[in-house]
Structure formats: C-alpha cells, structure tokens
Amino acid sequence: MKLGLIGNPIKHSLSPWIHTRLLNQANIAGSYELYEMEPGSFNEQISYLRKEGLDGFNVTVPFKQKIMTALDDIDEQARLLGAVNTVKNLDGKWIGYNTDGKGFLHSLRAKYPELSDKNIKALIIGAGGAAKGIYHTLKNETTGHIDIANRTSERAKEMMEAGAERENVRILTLQEAESRIADYDLIIQTTTVGMKPNVDQQIISLRNISEGTIVSDIVYQPLMTSFLKEAQAKGARIHQGHEMLLYQAVYAFEIWTGISVEESRLLKELEEQLKGA
C-alpha cells in the first residue's frame, strides 16, 4: 500500500511514524511518504502526484481547501466543512474526507467518557480548518451551548453559519471568552499559539477557570503547552494535542484500508516519541 502526506512545511511531520506503525499493526506491507508542495505550483505537483499511484494520502496546511478542486468526489461532511484532510484513491478516482472533528471527539471521549453526556457548555478558541471540523462535530454530537472566540469575528461567523443552523451558538471576542472562562465544561484551543518555538505564548488567560473543567489544546509540540500548564495548575483536567493527532490518523487509515486498529498502545508510543522530540 502506497500512502503519503501533502502540505508545506511537513519535514517534521509525525504522520510517517504513525502510519508506518498502523501498517505494521494491520500486517499490511506499505510505505508512507512526505510530498512537500509549493503553493505556487500546486496544480503541476498534483498532476505529478496522480501519476504516483498513491492508494491514499493526507492533506495538511495550506492545502486542505485547495485540494478540493483536484478531487473527483467529496464526502458530505468534508464538503460541509469546506476542507479535506484525507484522500482515498478508489479505482482511480480521488475521494475527499475530513477526519479532524471525528478524531478529536473520539480522542476526547476516550479519555473522558463522561463527555458522552451531550448537554455540555463548550468554548472553541479559533476559527481555522481544525476548528471547523471540531465545531461541526460538536454541533452534531452535542446539544449544549457552544461559544466560538476568535481574533476576527468574520471567520467565526463564517464557521458558525456553514451548514445547518443551530440555536445556542454564540460568537465572542477573545476578551469576552476570557471574562466568562469559569462558565465552561469544555475549552478547546485550536490555534497555533503556543506551538514550538513560541512555547511561552498563550492566547487567553485561564486564571478564573473552574476546577474540573476539561481543557484541550490541539498543539502537540510541545506536549504540555503554556495553556495546558496553566489549566492543570488551576485544577482543570487536560487533553493533549497528540491524542487528536493519533485518532484522526486512525480514522484516515480506516478509510483507506477498512481496518480498525487498537489505539491505546500507539498513544503511549507517540507520547514517548514526542517527549524525545
């Protein structure tokens, strides 16, 4: 099986490490290669990729939207989100999917099963591609209140309005979200703030957070972001970014192969890998 990843930059991606282990666990012979593309020559490079005969590939920034123009068909959920992170080659046709939201929620509930209670009050910080997937999954899988906080309200409004309407969704400024931080059961940080090398940056303060709140940060380098450190110090429970990274990869692998794999051992291995990064 021939798999890969397109994006830029991707030289330090952990996807080859993850998918090589998934292939081994499923007893499938195959490879997973990186295809770093330049945005200015995307169409030419996609034509080259077609000739490579990949069975499937992942898509990361900045091509999650752009890849949609090169696909033969798109899964309904990915079309709704306006972003694709997984492509399957089905008899020569490229089909696009998005596993971000599903992978996030699965990883969250695997760690905190009580979140299967659908009436939760959640805050999503950010309105980028990953935030879209997470928002739409929460919107479909929960019935509680969702707030979206972003630096610019326009992107948050666009994210909120995509797809079916729902009551109990509100757009806030970052300052408003910070002032109401004690109100939430679940807080999800989806921006790149706090990612290496800017590990001391933090998008909002959590000083008034309620004890026991679940705080998630999708940044996984470092494993413990400044955001998560403050949350933990204030008595919150944390959910780290590498957990979503693995679960969305597992769902992509299932799309390509039809095989479900056991994640728990791989999650521990991935954590050790990141600690040594």
TrEMBL record:
Transmembrane segments: none annotated. Residues 241-264 form the SDH C-terminal domain. It holds the Pfam family Shikimate_DH. The keyword Amino-acid biosynthesis applies. Residues 5-87 form the Shikimate dehydrogenase substrate binding N-terminal domain. PANTHER family: BIFUNCTIONAL 3-DEHYDROQUINATE DEHYDRATASE_SHIKIMATE DEHYDROGENASE, CHLOROPLASTIC, SHIKIMATE DEHYDROGENASE. This is Shikimate dehydrogenase (NADP(+)). The gene is aroE.
